Amino acid sequence: MLPFQEPESGQTSYHPAEEILYPFPISAKYVGELFQNCSDFQTRQIRFGDENAISVTVCWVEGLTAGGDLSEDVLRPLTQPARMVGVRSEEEAIRRILLGAVYSYSVRRRETCDDLVRDLLNGNCAVIFEKCHAAVTFEVKSDKMRSIEQSSLEKTIKGAKDAFIETLRVNTALVRKKLRSPKLKSKESVIGRKSGTLISIMYLEGVAEDHRVQELEKRLGEIDVDGLIASGFLEQYIVDQPASPFPQLLHTERPDTFAGYLLEGRIGILVDGLPIGFLVPAQLSQFMLVSEDRAQHFTVASMLILLRYAGLILALFLPAMYVAIAMYHQEMLPTKLLLSIIDAKQKVPFSTAAEVLGMLIAFELLQEAGLRLPSPIGDTVSIIGALIVGQSAVEARIISPIPVIIVAFSGISSYTLPSQDLASAVRVCRLLLVFAAMAGGIFGVMTGGILLIWHLCSLESYGISYLYPLVDGKSDGWLWVLLRKPLWKDRWRNPVIAGKDLRKQK
C-alpha cells in the first residue's frame, strides 16, 4: 500500500484501540524492556528494612524528574534505618511508605503497568516491589520551565502582564488566581495514543451550561489520534463545522481574558504543552473584541469596535467593488475620478482584474515572507518590499497607481482585526469576491456577499448561532455587537450562553 493511501474495502489498518496497553504484571525486567534503548531511563537497586531484607528497584526518566528531590525526598528516607525498623516484607514496606515514611507529598500505589508507565512519563519516580507485583510512585517532577512572561501577541496597557506557558499545572494555577472559587471546576483527560497529552476542561459550576460541558467532554473523548502536538489538532476535532475557514474556537494567551470568558459562561480548555487557552462556544462578534475593551471607557471602546467592523467590511469588499465598478459600472464614478483612472491605464498592458489579482497575490507573498522570516529581516522585507515593488511596478507602467492604493488600503484594514484566524478567513473570502466581481460586476459581488452571509448563518458553535446576537430577533441585538455596554449597566449574563447563575452584579 502506498503512503497515505486509504485501505481497500475489507482491509484493516493497524490502529487498535486498546484499553490496556501493557497487560503484564509489574516487574523491573518488564519495565526495563518497555524502555529499552531509552538512554534517559535510569534505574537503581537499593535495600532497606531489618537486615536489608527488602530489595527494590527505583526507576525514573532523567530530565522529567528533579534529581535533587529524588535523592532527598525518596532515596534518603528509604535508606534510613529508623524509618524502616521492623520491616521484613514488601507489603509492610508499602504500608509504611503510604503512611508517611517518605517525604514526598504525592504517593500512589500502582497495580498495573499502564498506570506505572503513565506516572513515569509524567515526571514521577517509581519504586518497584517484585514479589508483590506492585509499585509506589512519588511525584518529583523537574521544575525546569519557561518563566511566566508578558504575552507577545496580546499586548495590554491596563491589564495583567502574565501569560500562559507550556506547563498545564502552572496555567490552571494562573486561572485559579483570577477566580478564587471552589465553583471553578477542572476535569482532566488524556488524548493521544503516543503523545499522552493531558487536557484540562475548566468551567464555573452554575455559570456554564451543563449540557455544553458534557458535549465538550464527549467530543474530546471521541478524538482518536496518535498525538496532540499543535493547537490546530484540537480545533479541527471539536468544532461544529471544521470545513469552514472561519474560526469557531476562541483562544487567548492571557489568564485574565480566559477567566473573563469563564465568567460569561463559556468553557475553557487548557492543553499541556501549549501556551494557549481555548474557549467555547464562539461567535463572530467575540473575534472582533480585545481584552482592553473592558478596561477603556465605553465610548472609546465603542468607537474602536465600530472602526474594526468598518475595517472588516473594507478588507472584504473594497478590491471586489473596485473591480466591479471599473469593469462594468463606470457610470457610478465621478467624472474626474473616471478620467484619472482612464489616464493612468492608457499605457498599462493589463486589465483591471489582472492588476488587482496581481497586487493581491503580491501582497500575500510579502505578508507570508514577513511572517516566516526572522523578525528583523521579516519587518524589512514586508515594508521595504511593498514600497519598492509597488513603486517600481507603477513607474514601469506594469500597473496603475489606483489598484496599488486599493489593495494596500484593504490590507491595512485587515490588520485592524484582533483575531488572526478571522483575518485569514477574510483574506480567502476577499479573493473569492474578486473573482465574483470579474464574473458579474456588482451583481456578482452581491451574490458572493449573500452566499457569505448564508454560510455564516449556517454555522453554529455548541448550539448557539455563529452570528448571535444579530439573529436573535431582538430589536437591539445588533446594538451591543457594535457598541460596548457601560459596565454599571452590564448586570446580567447572557442567558443564551450562561446557565442558571445569571447575575453579575447588584
Features:
5-stranded antiparallel sheet, 506 residues, alpha+beta
Distance between the termini: 66 Å
Helix and strand pattern: HEEHHEHEEHEEHHEHEEHHHHHHEEH
Strand content: 5-15%
Shape: elongated
Percent range of helical residues? 40-55%
| Order of strands in the sheet with most strands | 1-2-4-5-3
Main β-sheet description: 5 strands, antiparallel
The count of DSSP E runs of length 2 or more, i.e. the number of strands, is 12
Instruction: Name the quaternary structure.
Output: single chain
Mean pLDDT across every amino acid position: 84
Alpha-beta classification: alpha+beta
Uncertain runs are: 1-5, 9-17
Number of helices: 15
Total separate domains = 3
Radius of gyration: 30 Å
Itemize the secondary structure elements and their pairings.
Blueprint: H1 28-34, E1 41-48, E2 54-61, H2 67-79, H3 90-101, E3 107-110, H4 113-121, E4 124-129, E5 134-139, H5 168-178, E6 184-191, E7 197-204, H6 210-221, H7 231-238, E8 250-252, H8 255-264, E9 267-271, E10 277-280, H9 298-328, H10 335-345, H11 352-372, H12 375-395, H13 401-414, H14 420-458, E11 460-461, E12 464-465, H15 479-482
Antiparallel strand pairs: 1-2, 2-4, 3-5, 4-5, 6-7, 7-9, 8-10, 9-10, 11-12
Helix pairs in contact: 5-8, 9-13, 9-14, 11-12, 11-13, 11-14
